[in-house]
Design a protein that fits this description.
The structure is a single chain. The chain is mainly beta. The chain has a single domain (8-317), classed as Outer membrane protein transport protein (OMPP1/FadL/TodX) (Porin), CATH 2.40.160. The termini are far apart. It is globular. It is 6% helix and 52% strand.
């Protein structure tokens, strides 16, 4: 079926989706606050029992219909005191005038191997996923709906679309390594491969696979002074012909005032695309993060350098473990 994608709205949606959504996969600027999306090996990589993560990103509102991305995940560490951790994640992305939507649900498991005195650990993660993609053709405008002087929504578009969506199975995997050298001093690294089986994603029975995405990341935590830590981070990703490198870091200032535990501020650079800033705070068992992108790509003429806001919220549940001590009863009488 020959489909005429001559409408400007559809063309822009497809072009922007390919250029600014990093090839084909959902991603966040605060990748360090979206662990299950970054690397399946990061499931259970936190200090606590359970972790809940929420992410939200809005971008390109200055150029076109805003692109919105949402993420929600939960993971449990060392289930039943075993080396197994598990996590569930849901991500949804909407792009352009056509509400081009991607919904991904993934369940992952990790096996943790401790080395030596357990200061080092290696995590092996596997993450099966189901993805559903859809498009709303009713929100698009076509040349047949031009009545000679203006657009008329009552006119037929002259097109017949066989499918407005597709569902497919996917599989991701990753390995991470972490070394706690001392208190407030550690390093970590990870390697991941997403879309291992390269599922077909075309709506029209064409051979258009979802290409594999390779990710390498290295991060650290270093004590600078009594109150300040440095958290450098670098990530490199490649998917088909597209690749991305982000490097930067945050400073962490310890407050030690009740529930107000720490403040964060950082600056990052994404090659040939954007620079962005982030601030954050630890409050009780919560971590809040906010970032804003400044567009530096060729689209800066249209965007006026404006990218978009991103928000992250992390809550870690730590079960109370009583301090069991042995006491010797001594009589207070003779």
């Amino acid at each position: 079926m020959k489909v005429k994608f001559l409408n400007i709205s559809l063309c822009c949606s497809l072009i922007l989706a390919s250029c600014f959504s990093f090839g084909q996969d959902i991603h966040f600027s605060q990748f360090y606050n979206s662990p299950l999306n970054l690397n399946p090996g990061l499931i259970g990589a936190f200090k606590g029992e359970f972790r809940l993560v929420a992410n939200q990103r809005t971008q390109w509102s200055s150029v076109t219909t805003p692109y919105s991305t949402y993420g929600l995940s939960v993971d449990a560490k060392n289930i039943f005191s075993s080396p197994i951790s598990a996590g569930l994640s849901v991500y949804q992305d909407k792009a352009g005038d056509s509400d081009f939507s991607t919904l991904q649900v993934a369940f992952g498991v990790v096996y943790t191997l401790h080395l030596g005195d357990s200061s080092q650990s290696i995590n092996f993660g596997l993450q099966p996923a189901f993805t559903q993609r859809s498009i709303n053709y009713n929100k698009l405008q076509f040349d047949n709906q031009y009545n000679g002087s203006s657009y008329d929504a009552n006119l037929g578009n002259g097109e017949t679309f066989e499918n407005n969506g597709r569902t497919y199975f996917n599989l991701h995997g990753g390995v991470t390594w972490n070394y706690e050298i001392a208190q407030r001093k550690e390093i970590g690294a990870g390697v991941a491969m997403h879309n291992i089986i390269k599922p077909q994603q075309s709506f029209f029975n064409e051979d258009i696979p979802l290409h594999q995405r390779f990710t390498i990341n290295v991060n650290g935590l270093f004590r600078v002074s009594d109150k300040i830590d440095a958290l450098p981070n670098i990530i490199w990703q490649k998917q088909h012909k597209f690749q991305e490198m982000i490097f930067g870091g945050q400073g962490k200032y310890h407050l030690n005032k009740g529930n107000y535990k720490a403040l964060y501020a950082g600056i990052w650079y994404r090659n040939s695309d954007a620079s962005y800033f982030n601030v954050g705070m630890d409050y009780g068992n919560f971590h809040f993060g906010i970032s804003y992108d400044l567009n530096l790509s060729s689209l800066k003429v249209a965007s006026n350098r404006r990218g978009g806001f991103e928000f992250a919220l992390i809550y870690i549940i730590q079960r109370y473990k009583p301090d069991l001590r042995r006491y010797k009863s001594c009589p207070d009488y003779i």
